[in-house]
Amino acid sequence: MLITIVSFAVVLGLLVLVHEIGHFVAAKAAGIKVLEFGIGYPPRALTLFKHGETEYTLNWLPLGGFVRMLGEEDPSHPDSFAAKPPLARALVLLAGPFMNFVLAVALFALLAMVAGVPTEKPANAVTILAVTSGSPAEEAGLQEGDVILYVANQRVTTSEQLQALTQEFRGKPLTLVVRRGDREFEVTLVPREQPPAGEGPIGIQITDRLIERYGPIEAFRAGFVATKRASLLILNGLRGMLSGEVGREAVAGPVGIAQVTGEVAREGGLLALINFTAVLSINLAILNLLPLPALDGGRLMFVLLEVVRGGKRISPEKEGLVHFVGMAILLGLVLIVTYFDVLRLFSNESLMR
């Protein structure tokens, strides 16, 4: 529970902070007066500090964050958000999601430099990508990055060979020859006969492809490619939800995301958590770009509508009402999803299985 709470708080805090920094910097660059930079949604818990015209606050609802700008729907003040031209307002709205995409690229690039990226080239050996907490592999001392050379005196060069042998030796001692750096050694473990759902008999994630570590420039390219790939997968998932191909069980709210974050942190370690954070950052960016009231995408639609109407704006009262109703509906949906998240949690189920 402690790992879940801490890891979720760190991940959510990072995503929200980066997102709101995007809005904040863009607003300042556009000459907009920023009244408050808030982590979480009101009611306010406390004011962290005040610098210049901006209060920095911590709020009770840990579902996101906000940048409160002067006159978001009132153009009467020259330094207000609403008084700026459409292009400036659009850039401020886009800056938050853009920064979440940037964060994803940076995190994927970090992984490409530190952990490396599996290539299409066969390695003629099996490399451990992650070790599950509490598994036979962890108890035997196996670590991420170890290369498995022999299993039961048989040379293994593919994932399929390793999987077949661990299935064959379930419940019986199994000896592995492992290479770690320049050293080779033996470990003995007993593959589980009934492993937990989503785990194998010995509790490792593996690859039989060569893993290549990149320099900064190549890593940035790899990060961009990984972000593009993940974005397309998320968009396909959204399309599946709208068409009914993806069911409710694949949807998670704050409680579900916290549960999965904890599982990733415990079972996959720091590198897996970094990868998961990158994917969550992309999710947050895409979600905020949807043309829904109260989200960045919904506000952007009003800016575009103004341009289409030749500069004629929707009245601030009507726009504010739309966003208020939209926020109420979104919070209602969050509560419904959270109810099912709690049921899943108490049923000992997981989105990862």
Question: What is the structure about, briefly put?
Answer:
With 353 residues, this protein is α+β, with helices and mostly antiparallel strands. It contains 8 helices and 8 strands; from the N terminus they run αββαβαββαβββαααα. α6 runs antiparallel to α8.
Plain-language structure description:
The chain is of the alpha+beta class. The chain has 8 helices and 8 strands; from the N terminus they run H-E-E-H-E-H-E-E-H-E-E-E-H-H-H-H. Strands 3, 4, 5, 6, 7 and 8 form a 6-stranded antiparallel β-sheet that branches. The protein has a two-stranded antiparallel sheet with strand order 1-2. The radius of gyration is 24 Å and the shape is elongated.
Q: Structural class, please?
A: alpha+beta
Separation, N- and C-terminal Cα atoms: 19 Å
* Binned strand content: 15-25%
Number of strands: 8
